[in-house]
Amino acid sequence: MPKKPPPSPAARTAYHHGALRSSLIDATEALLAERGLEGFSLREVARRSGVSPAAPAHHFGDADGLLTVVATLAFDGLTEALAAGNARGGSDPVARLREQGVGYVRFALRHPGRFGLMFRAGNHGDDAELQRSGHAAFAMLENGVRDLLGVPPDQPLTAPQHAVLMSIWSTVHGFAHLTLAGQLHHTRCDLSLEASVDAVVGPMLQQQLEGLQAVMEGTGKQRAR
Q1: Yes or no: is domain 1-61 CATH 2.20.25.160?
Q2: Could you give the C-alpha distances from 221 to 158, 161, 198, in angstroms and in order?
Q3: Residue 15 pLDDT more than 50?
Q4: DNA binding happens at which residues (predicted)?
Q5: What global pTM score does this model have?
Q6: pLDDT per residue as tens digits for the range 107-135
């Protein structure tokens, strides 16, 4: 068989740039997981990627540009995790939201660097791609609450309905942060961390969601009288 010709210089350059971009993103996530945003530096990311301190500028402009890309990818990943939860939950709105919550915490544990960056104040909220990704993730949760409460997509949430949305988000977000901070290590000592989270988050959300659903249904019936 004839040998394939070697890749052209342009192809090698494109491959190198793509690999470097991914390497810089991976190094950023690892550094954030180890040191947090306060310990982040573009120079250290470049060092871990084996390139000069000026190399990241060709792909991201500056440190803020790199962090914005990582945050955008994080929200995209969270949206995928929530969508997978919807699939596991099937047609039951309680099960769908419960599995969204489990997926939310799992995502935080698997990607602590990205999760720690996503909701930081001043995280380039005016970036169009970051806004798109953030809104898509939040829409997954909001649509789950709409299904739970029977609110059509074109109807604004009332104040009590919005409170339900905030209650569910606060529960899983707070649980994720407490777990990452090592405050819930005693939850189920006989299980791995992720298994113990699954064992706790699912039942906890099931109780919360059934209670919220019952309260909102009771409120609606009272208003209808």
Answers
A1: no
A2: 16, 15, 34
A3: no
A4: 41-60
A5: 0.83
A6: 999 999 999 899 875 555 678 999 999 99
